[in-house]
Amino acid sequence: MNLARTNLFQQKAYINGEFVDANSKKTFPVFNPYTGEEIAQVADCGAEETKLAIAKAGDAFKIWKTYTATKRGKILRRWYELQLEHQKDLAQLLTIEQGKPMAEAVGEIRYGASFVEWFAEEARRAYGDTIPGHQKDKRILVIKQAIGVVGAITPWNFPSAMITRKVAPALAAGCTVVVKPSELTPLSALALAVLAQEAGIPPGVFNVIPTNKAASVGEELTSNPMVRKISFTGSTAVGKLLLRQCADTVKKVSMELGGNAPFIVFDDADIDKAVAGAIASKYRNAGQTCVCSNRIFIQAGIYDEFIQKFTAAAKAQKIGNGLERGITIGPMIEEKAVASVELLVEDAIAKGASLLCGGQRHGGAGSLIYQPTILGNANPEMKVFHTEIFGPVAPVFKFKTEEEVLAMANDTPYGLAAYFYGRDYARLWRVAEALEYGMVGINSFTVSTTVAPFGGVKESGMGREGSKYGMDDYLELKYMLWSGVE
Ligand code: ADP
């Protein structure tokens, strides 16, 4: 590790403005997924430390919510500037613990910081309403108030941006937060805490609880009555569990869960653009994002041309150590992840898919790298049709009609992102409206931006992150009925 600011590398928990050991003094190891080397021993907190952080966040809430929105915004703005100033260090830490290529890591830091900038501005726009009274002497006023202490549970695939995307709107609204980062990538979270402290975010307003015992920390966050809201990004299975756990204390929830994104290319599309889009949307972060294309549907008339160009482009990807220049695909996060992708590819081949490229681990160094893989002639009997692949494997399905492809695209309990390419104006509208997804990219391979609402429908979750809607998830409406205005 070669950080300009060495103190961004932190291994302790961040509670009430201080970096502290776990009560037990226990630690857990963090590994570099490319080299397999241990890179840190991080404080292994549990329910006790979580309870303390929640109590401190509760105390801090009483003060933080009384700050003017302008004051909260100014502090957030400073946090944003520090993230940009130290983007190279933050990106390096991210690549070392997560594996994604440096260019993508820098992209994530900038993307993550953009939420802090955006919500620093939005803090001042938590407008309410006045409503014409329903009786002569009545006046009705609606105000928005911060919900309270928020528990945020975040994943390893975007170890930095998934934190800022939750914490920035929460803090802007006047809430305080206890974050539990993924046990696989706690270093990016702790580096954000260093910069939060430096930006002047007061003690207790933002806390980070690293742990190797996700379930016990999760249990405390979801059962503690002082926590009024849980925001989670991760698998649908864990999301469902947390929803059940939140029921007893009736917490508000935001859930950003799994996806099964269709990527549809119609006959009249610009094929080269569609190929470039499919590559970016499938292989980004080695296929480990919830908005990665999971199923690629190509209309019969252009299937052969698309396959030929797509395969050539996949073969041209540079796999290796994300810290090296020019690498486009790094290692997967852990052995389990590679093994699960191997099983999916085996299943597809056994059910008639043709392996057009990849299909194996990369030899030599970087044993967690899985080659960019394309499976032709895929069909809905294969597990890749129903399962979130979360790896660099692209199953390609051939279709004939718009009706047929829409039925296949919507045949999933997920509903996060969908993409399609074409030119016929009326069809673009029809398809965009018919796709049962929270986000639709039309002639675009990406939907993520600070200014638009990110989130899914069906089992992909609830709530929206980013945009003018993003703060609503951290605000309650209070309506006041003024009577006796004679
Ligand atoms: P992924 O498939 O992306 O690893 P997970 O849902 O397993 O998704 O992980 C997302 C986050 O949820 C991580 O921070 C992980 O530690 C956390 N997590 C996993 N299991 C639980 C649990 N039982 N309670 C609370 N958090 C959990």
Structural Rg: 23 Å
The third-level CATH topology of the largest domain is Aldehyde Dehydrogenase, Chain A, domain 1
Residue-averaged pLDDT, rounded? Answer: 98
Which structural class best describes the helix and strand composition?
alpha/beta
Strand order of the largest sheet: 14-15-16-13-12-17-18
Strand content: 15-25%
Features:
486 residues; alpha/beta; Aldehyde Dehydrogenase, Chain A, domain 1; Aldehyde Dehydrogenase, Chain A, domain 2; 2 domains; seven-stranded mixed β-sheet; six-stranded mixed β-sheet; 14 helices; 37% helix; globular; binds adenosine-5'-diphosphate
How do the helices and strands line up, and which of them pair or pack?
Layout: E1 13-15, E2 18-20, E3 27-31, E4 38-43, H1 47-64, H2 69-85, H3 87-98, H4 102-122, E5 129-131, E6 139-146, E7 149-153, H5 161-173, E8 176-180, H6 186-199, E9 206-208, H7 214-223, E10 227-233, H8 236-247, E11 252-256, E12 261-265, H9 271-283, E13 293-299, H10 303-315, H11 335-350, E14 354-357, E15 373-376, H12 383-386, E16 393-399, H13 402-410, E17 417-421, H14 425-434, E18 439-442, E19 461-462, E20 475-482
Parallel strand pairs: 7-8, 7-10, 8-9, 10-11, 12-13, 12-17, 13-16, 15-16, 17-18
Antiparallel strand pairs: 1-2, 3-4, 5-6, 6-20, 11-19, 14-15
Adenosine-5'-diphosphate binds at residues 153-156, 180, 182-183, 214-215, 218, 234-235, 238, 241.
